[in-house]
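Chapter summary example.
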Amino acid sequence: MSEPTIKPEPSLFSLIARDTALAVAALSLWAAADTWYLVSGLWFAQAVSVLDAIFVGYVLGALFHEWGHYTGAKLSGAVAPRVKSKGTSLFRFNFDMATNSQRQFHWMSFGGWVFHWGLLAILLIALPLDSIGRIALVSSVFGFILYATFIETGILRQTLGGSDPAETLGQLSARTFQQASVVGSVAGLFALATLS
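The structure predicted for these 196 residues follows.
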């Protein structure tokens, strides 16, 4: 009987190149729609710009969040081999719960927060909020941040209190993700209304 084949880790460069291309493509589509609206003033162009912004904000937020998790894990010295994602999955690595410590889990967790708040800061500095498409992009990223924060705050509250990270993650339910979706959506709409 032969031993199972272990797939090699994808190179860091290949994953960064793929995600950079994804981010640039998404931003380009959004920027084209934003420009179309600003030039034409058409209501349809405005709707496309806002819908693009919602999608692109989520994708950018998720990419930055996951790379933040990976960076936090690596800075802590955790065992976190990179993986080739399947389909549309944005997961880029496996965090070895059995090998890594709680401290490394927390480094990994907070890395995601640092990166997604960093993205929001970059957008607020780089983009003038003078079109509904730009406001929608920033609002979408803010909504993603609150979505992720809602899920991860409960986990961190338990693990910082001594609970096992693997067991805590295993307790996540579909209801948690539904509630997080509501929180993220309301936060995004609130930001959109406030900044408009």
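To summarize the output: The chain is about 75% helix and 0% strand.
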